[in-house]
Amino acid sequence: MEVFRIGLIPVYARDIADIFLLTTILYALLRWLYRYNLLNVAILLFLLVSLGKVAHLTGLETLNFLLRQLALWLGILLAIALAPELRRALYALRPFGKLPFLRREVVSEDKIEKLATEILQAVNNLASRGLGAIIVIEGNDDLSSYAQTGDSLLLPVEARMLLMLFDRRSPLHDGAVIIRGDKIVAARCTLPVSDRTDLPETFGQRHRAAIGISESTDALAVVVSEETRLISIAQRGELRRVTPVELKKQLVEFYAK
Questions:
Q1: Domain at 227, CATH number
Q2: Ranges 25-39, 54-68, 81-95, 160-174: which has the least confidence
Q3: Are the beta carbons of 159 and 125 closer than 8 angstroms?
Q4: What is the pTM of this model?
């Protein structure tokens, strides 16, 4: 359907839709690259490709070959730099990850409220005592490779168990605790640390590790700050402060989905 004309050129509704969608995608892509301080690299890559096309059209094949090689290696470096964010985006798009029969450990509905209450009680106690902690709850993605970096356990998810593990006198207090279903399966675990450059300087190693594991997997990470005694959760690569009420709600929703 013709909407209007620019001189003798008709403009159709599909043309407007094409321009709008292309502009939206380019804007989102540029903001995404700017967030990771890679916008200049992307612009340089675009210029190399454009100059290569010009060189090809003008018959400068040696220059074209050189520019294509530079663009190829620059594209590989850009992909490596964006790998964590690309993984997070792909995990979010997976169509089968949320199917119940693909979960490694399904928790019955009657246990969800108890588990959320136990974790909340432990987190509140840790915060009141000024004890730092990071608790990672496995979702659909297998966390065995991260659990293997620590000490294997098979303990019930209870507040007293979590308090014991994160007590400064415990040899297992340094590192993350991993929960699978209704069991604590590992402690003193090492997690991938996010390499994002836009994170506040106030974020310590625990917060960066929580973001890192949530970038690579669909796990939910709960962090207690030793310095501020504030509680945060990390999911899908984003970390935010939460109140006890918000934390319990998030835990119930995570276990129930």
A1: 3.40.1700.10
A2: 81-95
A3: yes
A4: 0.62
